Amino acid sequence: MAIALAAAPGLLGATQAAAKMDQPVHLDTGLVAGAPIADSPLTAFWGLPYAEAPTGKLRWRPPVPVKAWKGVRPADYQRPLCPDLPARNGRPEVARSEDCLNVDVVTGADSAAERRPVMVWIHGGTRGMGGSASPNINGAELARKGAVVVTINYRGGPFGLLATPELSRESGRGASGNYGLMDNVLALQWIQRNIAAFGGDPGNVTIIGESFGAATCHFLSLSPLAKGLFHRMITESHSLYPHDPLIMQVAAKYKPLKDAEADGLHFMEVAGAKSAADLRKLPWEKLVEAFEKSGAPEDFIWSYVIDGYVLPRNFSQTYEAGAHPAIPVLTGENRDENRASADTAFDLVAAGKAKRPNPAMYTGFLGVAGYRDYAAKRFGAMAEEYLGLYPGNTDREVFDSANAAIRDNQRISPWTWANLFTAKRSEPVFLYFFTHAPPGPNRGMIGAFHGSEIPYAFNRPGANWTDEDRRIADMMSTYWVNFARTGNPNSPDLPKWAAFDGKTERVMELGDHFQPIPLADNVRLDFWRRFYASQPAR
Hints:
- This protein is of the alpha/beta class.
- The protein is built from 18 helices and 16 strands.
- The protein folds into two domains: 303 residues, Rossmann fold, CATH 3.40.50; 180 residues, Alpha/Beta hydrolase fold, catalytic domain (Rossmann fold).
- Helix content is 33%, strand content 15%.
- An eleven-stranded mixed β-sheet has the order 3-4-6-8-7-9-10-13-14-15-16, with helices on both faces. Strands 1-2-5 form a three-stranded mixed β-sheet, with no helix packed on it.
- A hairpin with a 4-residue loop joins strand 15 and strand 16.
């Protein structure tokens, strides 16, 4: 059975002969048989289990390695994904089940004798309630360029993050929450044992994530349980300086154990449960309903937990102790995320061509009074200085200033994070700023929005893509595969991307142009540095 995974190949790709990995593959738990991807040299293996179904007594416990099976297990069709919020994350046609702890593998290797770089996608979604079914995160084009691509499905939302005092007691370690992180650790261990069978190199594994997936990558880099399981990291959004308060307002937010346990008790009340045993009896659909009613996700009460076991330290404590891995990192932000919007949005609204967006989601539409309140709450004693640099005396000035401030922070905060991350490390960090707005009906409002870089990094053409879109995608995906292969995104056919050096106050623009750009002007840069210095470490 052929699987139509791959769209038209990227500019560097071409249709080749059928895949040669057409015999059952030997895993440590049994044999699996994949299927060729139509019109490509690739083979896909869907739903390879790395753990037993986390149901019944296994809910809210560390994942249990899957048992061996006899015969050949078919891996030629999409398996159910973990419980999700279809209304939020889409794909309602995709089956959902708690029996979802599996990985998908796409490879172009001819045999197990090859040693291709391994690129492991850790999906995002509403507090991790996503999955591998999105067409934007198809690994076929990265596999065409020489990688073995793995997507991990893991527990998200209340299934992967719930902490309560009772769960902490029964763990034997005084810790709960972080089940999604433990799933990812077990999956990475599975990769170490089995990826060579698909032509992958277990000594060259790059983890990749966006939004909550990027946060998951970061937290894996803080966890001693994941030590040695990956060798490079790509995080798309949220590599923020621990003194930047924004870090606690996005997917990288964490909770101390006691706070997470208190949130868990609130969830139990909403779910109508008095004990973990009661919760384990409920169908997963009821747990999703309680998740939506308990304040998630807008209030961000669901987060990974500094529990003393999976995560013994927060970001700044880990970096100061030098307890994070010595690995190359590629990371960056998008121009119009974190409550920025496209430069054309104000004029479209003013002309009646677009609806005024929710100012809670787009700071530029707060208006004069709302903007001053925002500045006072966010910058405190430095609010007037902020308003001097990013003034808001008219609605239009508020719009322009808010966008400028957000974008400055989205370059300065990751650059400052890189200073801290590399303070006790010599491995390179490559910083980017993505600026291209994908085509679509809302392009003039949302611009280069949160997650808009994903199809370009994966080289997955979207509706109405132009030759320019395809060129950007081909270049970005080549940078990504180069980095996975060598720890350096550069190659002779691409614009030079300089590694972070702690001195050159620039990041690499990807998208509308491929060039280094400054962080901000000196006065604004000085303001942000002093503002960070006034904030607590996280």
